[in-house]
Write a structure and sequence with these properties.
Strand content: 15-25%
Radius of gyration: 18 Å
CATH class: Alpha Beta
CATH superfamily: Spore Coat Polysaccharide Biosynthesis Protein SpsA, Chain A
Mean pLDDT: 92
Oligomer: single chain
Number of strands: 10
Largest sheet: 4 strands, mixed
Order of helices and strands: HEHEHEEHEEHEEEHHEHH
Length: 252
């Protein structure tokens, strides 16, 4: 999915060619969310093999990814941010690792650069409060199952992802990866963190107030959709008390 990504998407697309290796047939679909910087035309001119789908308005990350999922014909699907760079052979290695799982769900490699970690634990009120109060991040896990992985570079069997409905379109940005991983777990599918492969991700991990609002709004939506009413209300109240103490607002 691209949104005003002309400056970064070229390096991403170039890296995909070598990441696949000679043994994989690569199909690349790019869904553009109404970029005003000429991203779709630039991609068509420089990467004619890429299938470009243009949206007249920004429909959000989840819906754009689902558009590509509906058109993809491969056995595996990789959701990849345009500011990501894959090393040679990375995609082939990720697929081989996911194939080792009896009931494969999703996999993410280690992400290096300015973005957030590629893995996480399912949120609880305690973890959200601790994060808001500046608690030290949890140590990176080793290779193996985790609660959820980031959608910036997320691999899964295409049919499995489709069977579970893909991303939930109600999430515009943030939270859609958390929701999908939770549904994978409920279906008995394994979500894997694979740090033996490293992908460069140029995203940022700066938590400015507006971004924090969007993230916590997505978390509240997750609790509303995927957890009990009691859990949702506890998180709703807890986050608002934090906001009253520190100032600000939270939607949902």
């Amino acid at each position: 999915m691209t949104f005003r990504s002309r400056d970064v998407v070229g390096a991403c697309l170039a890296s995909l060619q070598t990441a696949a290796g000679p043994g994989l047939a690569l199909e690349v679909l790019l869904v553009d969310n109404a970029s005003a910087d000429g991203t779709p035309g630039w991609v068509r001119a420089n990467y004619p093999a890429v299938r470009v789908i243009e949206n007249p308005v920004n429909v959000g990350f989840a819906r754009a990814c689902n558009q590509a999922l509906g058109l993809a014909s491969g056995q595996y699907v990789l959701f990849l941010n345009p500011d990501a760079r894959l090393a040679t052979g990375a995609l082939e290695a990720m697929i081989q690792r996911l194939r080792q799982e009896p009931r494969p769900g999703l996999l993410s490699p280690r992400l290096q650069g300015g973005g957030p970690p590629a893995w996480g634990r399912f949120p609880t009120l305690g973890r959200l409060v601790a994060r808001r109060l500046g608690a030290r991040p949890e140590p990176e896990p080793g290779e193996g199952p985790v609660d959820w992985v980031l959608g910036a570079c997320m691999l899964g069997p295409a049919e499995v992802v489709r069977e579970l409905g893909g991303f939930d379109d109600d999430y515009f940005l943030y939270g859609e990866d958390l929701d999908l991983c939770d549904r994978m777990a409920a279906a008995g599918r394994t979500v894997v963190y694979y740090p033996l492969v490293t992908v460069t991700h140029l995203g940022n991990d700066r938590w400015d107030p507006d971004r924090l609002e969007r993230v916590y709004g997505a978390v509240l939506m997750f609790f509303k959709k995927r957890r009990s009413l009691v859990s949702y209300l506890a998180v709703w109240i807890g986050l608002r008390l934090l906001k009253l103490w520190r100032g600000g607002r939270i939607e949902n």
